[in-house]
Amino acid sequence: MTGFAAGTLGRLALLSALTLTVSCQRKAVCDDVAGSCLALTVVGQGPFDELRTELALPGGAKKVGVTSGNIDLPLTLRVLPPDGVSSATISAVGVAGFVAGTSQASGSTGSDFSWPDGAHIAATVALQGASPVDAGVNDMSVVVDQGTLPDLTMPDLAGPPPTLRWTQESATGNPRQMLYGVFSGGSGQTFAVGESGIILARGATNWSSEASPTATDLHGVAGFAGNGTWTVGESPGAWRRAATWTADATGLVLQTGETVWSVAAGGTAGELWAGSENGKVWKRTGATGGNGAWTSEQALPIGNRVYGVAYAGGTVFAVGQRGWVGVRRGTAWTNYQYATEFPGTADALFGVSAINADAAVAVGSKGFAVRYSAGSWRSAVKINASDNEFNGVWMAPSGRSYAVGYNGLIVRLDQSLAATQLQTDSSQTLTAIFGLGETDIYVVGQRARLPNPESLILHGTP
User: Fold this and answer.
1) Buried-exposed string 221-255: b where 16+ CB fall within 10 A, e elsewhere
2) Are 233 and 276 in contact (CB under 8 A)?
3) C-beta contacts of 198-205 below 8 A and 24+ residues apart
4) How far apart are CA 293 and CA 374, in angstroms?
5) Contact by Cβ (8 Å): 199, 246
6) Distance between CA atoms of residues 93 and 86, nearest Å
7) Interatomic CA distance for residues 431 and 309, integer angstroms
8) Of the listed ranges 93-97, 131-135, 164-168, the one predicted with least confidence
9) Is the distance from CB of 29 to CB of 38 less than 8 angstroms?
10) Which terminus of the chain, N or C, has less C-beta within 10 A?
11) Furthest-apart CA atoms within the chain: distance in Å
12) Per residue in 69-124, pLDDT tens?
């Protein structure tokens, strides 16, 4: 990409220049950057639900990065120049704060701004006043090459990753079923679900079976810490854990043979998002202590299963068959297909995880992973040269992600999806992953062990 495509990225109307501070010392947000890096501190009156940061490039071109969420100021962003662009050619950096898509305040560095190539500097921009802004947003039907836009939406990696041991945890009765989903809300609220309706609950150190409401497969489990847990699968499609696991599927209409494949907690207590058949994503509303109501939305094209859903910062992500990905910002879904990497019905993105409205990672067939950042789906990255299939992913608040798949493979991904292998075991099939933090991660699946297979739960801790 060279410059902005008309109507693709909004342009900011920048206000008067404000303070600039240049330091010879490396700033914390730039400590892991080898080349040019700007520690940009944004001050002013908030809060905002979006910051748009614009780099002024040679020839009048602009590049925009987006940071979303509940944003309070001051906030320091790590700003990197686009690939192939010298920071010395960036003449200004502007920032605008938005609420519900409307610009509320903006500011810019001044005419004395200077960013020597390869240097780590710091600048402060103060947001003030309201300014007219073209409210155009990124066209999410476009995939952007890695690094084309300044990546301002990913959090800074919080120090080096921990070294983890993956310990198999035991379950009473030595269950044999494949486990397809895992969720933890903390002590006393950790569950795994799977084949033939199996539901396992974690005690202090081991797992035991709970009475299941179904003998059909359960594909996902999610909830709110200390405030409710749900599992999903075949008709009626969803169950809530109360005194017993009880059907909670009012309005959730599945045709014969259809399944709910995934579920994620939303932004308010009792709000759930679940992926199903024919491109449908179901939304649950209602209290956590009783049955809710489900309505469907068309997230992906008809004829494509939605295998994975995630929610963060008011944005819903959906991924599925044939490499389709979707994003719901506001009330509308926009989707894109990775057709080259996933051309067939069996090819899919199976899992997705997000930590804010502009930071998500999805994994799937043929060793591929994709990420959503700065308002765009980036180009696919092969994270396993042997085309190992990945079934699940969990994104940590640090911005690192952990993906699991066949052959017991666990990999850690950095913000650019560079992979570090943490484990491999040809006897294991790993299907799902969930973490309370980078030092407390659960992975589930099945181990092939003679004479019978066994349900598999791994706990990643230092």
Assistant:
1) bbbbeeebbbbbbbbbbbbbbeeebeebbeebebe
2) no
3) 198/455, 199/231, 199/245, 200/171, 200/175, 200/455, 200/457, 202/169, 205/169
4) 33
5) no
6) 14
7) 15
8) 131-135
9) no
10) C
11) 74
12) 667 788 888 888 887 789 999 999 999 888 877 788 899 988 889 999 888 888 88
* Residue that the structure tokens 């594909």 belong to: 219
CB of 128 closer than 8 Å to CB of 44:
yes
The rounded mean pLDDT for the chain is 86
Question: What was the pLDDT predicted at 124?
Answer: 87
Separation of alpha carbons 311 and 135, rounded Å: 24
Question: Which residue has 């894109």 as its token pair?
Answer: 336
**Residues 251-302: pLDDT tens digits?**
999 999 999 999 999 999 999 999 999 999 999 999 999 999 999 999 999 9
Query: Are the C-beta atoms of 264 and 255 separated by less than 8 Å?
Result: no
Whether 149 has a pLDDT exceeding 80, the answer reads: no
Q: How far is CA 324 from the centre of its chain?
A: 15
For the full predicted model, state whether its pTM sits above 0.85. Answer: no
> Both tokens of residue 348?
């899919």
CA–CA distance, 203 with 163 (Å, rounded to integer): 25
Query: What six digits make up the tokens of 202?
Result: 């974690």
User: Is the sign of the CA dihedral 41, 129, 133, 316 positive or negative?
Assistant: positive
For 166, other C-beta atoms within 10 Å of its C-beta total 17
The pair of structure tokens assigned to 9 is: 């990225």
| Strand ordering across the sheet containing 165-168 | 165-168, 454-461, 440-447, 428-437
Torsion sign across C-alpha atoms 269, 186, 231, 335: positive
Residue found by looking up tokens 């730039």 in the block: 30
- The verdict on whether omega for the bond into residue 58 sits within 30 degrees of 0, i.e. cis, is no
**DSSP string computed for 201-247:** EE-SSSEEE---S-SS-EEEEEE-TTS-EEEEEBTT-EEEESSSEEE
Q: What is the pLDDT of residues 4-30, one digit of tens each?
A: 233 323 323 322 222 333 333 333 567
Comparing 119 with 447, the larger pLDDT belongs to 447
Closest C-alpha among 454, 430, 455 to residue 443: 430
Please, how many CA atoms are within 13 Å of residue 185, restricted to the half-sphere of its CB?
15
